[in-house]
């Protein structure tokens, strides 16, 4: 019996790459001022970031409904397979609760895993889960190994600009102004399912150096999946 790996577009896995990898990605929905879009289907990442530059407010996101989960789970298990769904962190979205409601219909054939991550750290967990499925691990074994991997997953990022933090209400206009004036670049990570500031640097070059120094201080296992990412230009 095979195990299907499912996640959502918060993993930064495109629909094209998902097909190549052999996983199912459920698109999240977001709303700009002119309407609602399915992530990665109705709008590309490039267009999304172009739109951000002209919008006064950040787009609002919608959690995936139990019905949409149920339809996907039904399709993926129709051939008798088990499925493991890796959810965007429950700390930033209610989608996982919807997935758990839907999974109850499938008599244990669908396992819901709270990744406690999003963006590329969720992506590497999805790639790892797919590797385990290809090795013949069953759904319970995959979830067990994912829980072990959670202790080791790291994501580090530096913000080049603070404007979107201001738009999202995570930073006051005054703080954003002072930060831009002094060229302060926050270095962030995801910890316990939410965003945490690791440090700050003056200027992007120092920010990148701080990020590199942090990475070099960790013990990196290059046999595990890893990823690089950027946003906008």
What does this structure look like?
This protein has 233 residues and is of the alpha/beta class. The protein is built from nine helices and ten strands. The protein has helices at residues 15-21, 45-54, 66-77, 95-103, 120-134, 139-149, 163-167, 173-181, 204-217; strands at residues 3-8, 24-26, 29-32, 35-38, 60-62, 82-87, 110-114, 156-158, 184-191, 194-202. The strands form three sheets. Strands 2-1-6-7 form a four-stranded parallel beta sheet, with helices on both faces. Strands 4-3-5 form a three-stranded antiparallel beta sheet, with no helix packed on it. The longest helix is centred in the middle third of the chain and has 15 residues, at 120-134. It is globular, with a radius of gyration of 19 Å. Residues 172-179 have low confidence and may be disordered.
Q: What is the strand tally?
A: 10
- What characterizes the major β-sheet? 4 strands, parallel
Helix-and-strand structural type? alpha/beta
Query: H/E series, N to C?
Result: EHEEEHEHEHEHHEHHEEH
User: Major sheet: order of its strands?
Assistant: 2-1-6-7
Shape: globular
Q: Helical percent range?
A: 25-40%
How far apart are the termini?
A: 44 Å
Tell me the Rg in angstroms: 19 Å
Task: Indicate the mean pLDDT.
Answer: 87
- Which runs of at least 5 residues are low in confidence (pLDDT < 50)? 172-179
Strand content: 15-25%
Number of helices: 9
């Amino acid at each position: 019996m095979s195990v299907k790996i499912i996640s959502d577009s918060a993993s930064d896995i495109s629909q094209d790459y998902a097909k190549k990898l052999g996983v199912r990605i459920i698109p999240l929905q977001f709303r700009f001022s002119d309407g609602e879009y399915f992530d990665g289907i109705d709008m590309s990442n490039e267009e999304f970031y172009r739109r951000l530059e002209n919008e006064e407010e950040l787009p609002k996101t919608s959690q995936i409904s139990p019905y949409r989960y149920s339809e996907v789970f039904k399709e993926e298990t129709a051939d008798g397979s088990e499925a493991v769904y890796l959810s965007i962190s429950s700390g930033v979205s209610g989608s996982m609760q919807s997935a758990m409601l839907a999974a109850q219909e499938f008599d244990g054939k669908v396992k819901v895993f709270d990744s406690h991550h999003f963006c590329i750290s969720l992506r590497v967990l999805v790639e790892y889960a797919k590797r385990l499925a290809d090795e013949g691990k069953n759904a319970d074994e995959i979830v067990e190994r994912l829980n072990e991997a959670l202790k080791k997953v790291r994501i580090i990022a530096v913000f080049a600009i603070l404007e979107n933090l201001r738009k999202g209400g995570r930073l006051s206009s005054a703080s954003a102004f002072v930060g831009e004036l002094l060229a302060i670049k926050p270095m962030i990570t995801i910890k316990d399912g939410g965003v945490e500031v690791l440090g700050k640097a003056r200027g992007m070059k120092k920010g990148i150096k701080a990020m590199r120094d942090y990475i070099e201080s960790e013990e990196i296992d290059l046999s595990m999946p890893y990823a690089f990412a950027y946003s906008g230009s």
